[in-house]
Amino acid sequence: MRELVGKSCFILFFIFICQSVLASTKSLRHQEPCKRLELYYHDVLFDGTNLANATSARATNPTSLGDFKFGMLVVFDDPITLDNHLLSPPIARAQGFYFYDKKNHYNAWFAFTLVFNSTQHKGDFFMSKGIATLQTDVAQGAAYFRLKMDVKLYECY
């Protein structure tokens, strides 16, 4: 009898967990974002001559294991703009690092914080939940690249 009660409790618990997961997934899938931002991230790598314009610099040299800067670590303080022009006024700065982690083509792993310097977006992200998708918009080798950031917030206060 105890064995039957234990199995019944486990089955009910399992069903409850499955329903909770499905309900939360379904609600996010059909929910419209309460705020959406399209931002552009600009990275100008220091090459030894562009000190005035550079926004990032190598912290380590690439390894000799590949032709695509494999192992190179870059630290950055890059401007974030509302349009795709590098000279547009920045509304934020992306501060962090990335490193190239693939030997056979350009691929990078990023870690950064967005620091907004505009009162226009003050409070937009307080206690918010959302998703940010980054996509390469322009790449000029390692010298300059631009990422398009699609930010969707689903809980806004």
Task: Identify the overall geometry.
Answer: globular
Radius of gyration computed on alpha carbons: 22 Å
**SSE sequence, one letter per element:** HEEEEEEE
Whole-number count of domains: 2
Strand content: 35-45%
Biggest sheet record: 7 strands, antiparallel
The parts where pLDDT drops under 50 for at least 5 residues are none
Alpha carbon gap, first and last residue: 51 Å
Topology:
Elements: H1 2-30, E1 35-44, E2 56-58, E3 73-81, E4 92-100, E5 108-116, E6 129-140, E7 144-155
Antiparallel strand pairs: 1-3, 1-7, 2-3, 3-4, 4-5, 6-7
Family: Belongs to the plant dirigent protein family.
InterPro entries: Dirigent (IPR004265)
GO cellular component, one term: apoplast
